[in-house]
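Human: Here is a favour to ask of a fellow structure person. Comparing notes only helps if you start from a blank page. I am asking you to supply a protein in sequence and structure-token form. Write it directly below this note and I will take it from there.

Assistant:
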Amino acid sequence: MPQKTRCAPISSANYQRNGSPTEWGNWDILLVRKSDGFQVGIEAKLRLNAKVISQSAETAYQADKPGPDCRAILIPKGSNLDFQPVCNILQLQIIEIESETSKSPSTVNWYRPKLPNPDRASPAGNFKEFYPLERLELPEVIPVVEAGKPAPIKLTPWKIKAIKLDVILKKHGVATRKLFKALSLNTTLFLSSGNGWMLKGNARGEWLRGPNFPDFRVGCEENYDELEKRYKTWSKTLPMDDIIKPAAVEEEPVA
């Protein structure tokens, strides 16, 4: 089954379609229920094996960390299910998906079992809940990444902040430590590591783009463009007074 078809059918009237991020929070897909924010973390793979089970299972370290309400593994219908008993013990839900060739014309859903419904319990004890202390923080923009693609360039919370810095530098040419603090970006990495990412400007407290500043647009082109378009919205929350230079006012000639 082609990788690009593995994940597209996983949707429901109760779940956000365009609002469910791929490759986010270490999950290939993070489904989010519209009514209450209920989350299903899904690893999409071509086969069920020990590696994907270890990726999906909750570890002791993750017990008090943000996570999804349910954990699941998406595999093609007809895959070897020898590891299913292990998944049952770890409360991992197996979701089987049909291909275009195997799907019956009368089949409504491409996958089974159905996703958790807020109005009724899942049948046969499917989708065991983990009751996390906190759900995963959702991204400001939905990552445009092909779910399940090997070694994708992921849009992370840090990458979103770095893209914002990049956009500001392109628009205004300078940044300040105050801006780094507001974005929660490490000044040591950008300013003091000797990697040439940024250089001191002429004015006190100003920093300029250096010769080795990373191209944060690579691999996240659509998300970069979206954040660039929304600059006026998100920049309102940042300390821009020292960055945006006031327009020069021409003095009227003395009569």
